[in-house]
From TrEMBL:
Gene from which this protein is expressed: rsmG
Enzyme Commission designation: 2.1.1.-
Protein name: Ribosomal RNA small subunit methyltransferase G
Protein family according to the UniProt entry: Belongs to the methyltransferase superfamily. RNA methyltransferase RsmG family.
Lineage: Bacteria, Pseudomonadati, Thermodesulfobacteriota, Desulfuromonadia, Geobacterales
Superkingdom, natural source: Bacteria
Principal cellular location given in the protein's record: cytoplasm
Any single Gene Ontology cellular-component annotation: cytosol
Location in the cell: Cytoplasm
Amino acid sequence: MNALACRILQEGAAELGVAISDELLASFSLLANELQKWNRKINLTAITGDEEIALKHFVDSLALCRLVSGDDELLDLGSGGGFPVLPLALVFPDLTAVSVDAVEKKIIFQRHAARLLGCRRFEAVHARGEDLPRVLGRRFNRIVSRAFSDIPTFARMALPLLMPLGTIIAMKGKGGAEEADAARGPLAEMGLTVVRVAEYRLPFSGDARTLIEIGFY
Ligand SMILES: C[S@@+](CC[C@H](N)C(=O)[O-])C[C@H]1O[C@@H](n2cnc3c(N)ncnc32)[C@H](O)[C@@H]1O
């Protein structure tokens, strides 16, 4: 990553309350390089420039740090090139993280990146969200997604894998609060409720973002 992208990552993360040491910065740089290298051959992401990756993939993913803790058992559903799960695995080395995507080449990239980065408690699984209860057969206390699906569809897939006191977190952009309101009915039918809606701005760009946290009634 170039110097500006490193600054964007460190200052953007600091604004979200996350400290990026020089050692972590080197890991994020390595991840950005691998993403760019693989993206030239296989389509992983439309976000390709250094500064864009630093802001729209890394800083954006790190906004979840306020709702995730290092000892969580986390599942990222529809993780694509590894977001938000890989930045979280870097910042929380003890996080147990399982990443799922329906596109195998994306999962192969994530396994490669995690190996290079030394993410010991990270597992990438090629599967469709609909098949997860059969494929995974385990439970998580934090199930997250970014740019994945509408809230009820995501919640329906996550529900069988959620621990009793766990929460589901959808990362949304502008209009997230309205989407959360509209989902209250379908969520109630599943025994779920919206426990928190956090609206904030992405550092530097000022783009609107919303974290929607959902739990059992
Ligand atoms: C728009 S991308 C978002 C990727 C990543 N979360 C991000 O924010 O950069 C949506 C991802 O969800 C995956 N996906 C879509 N439907 C899925 C399903 N039913 N089960 C698992 N993955 C799915 C796609 O393959 C794609 O990688």
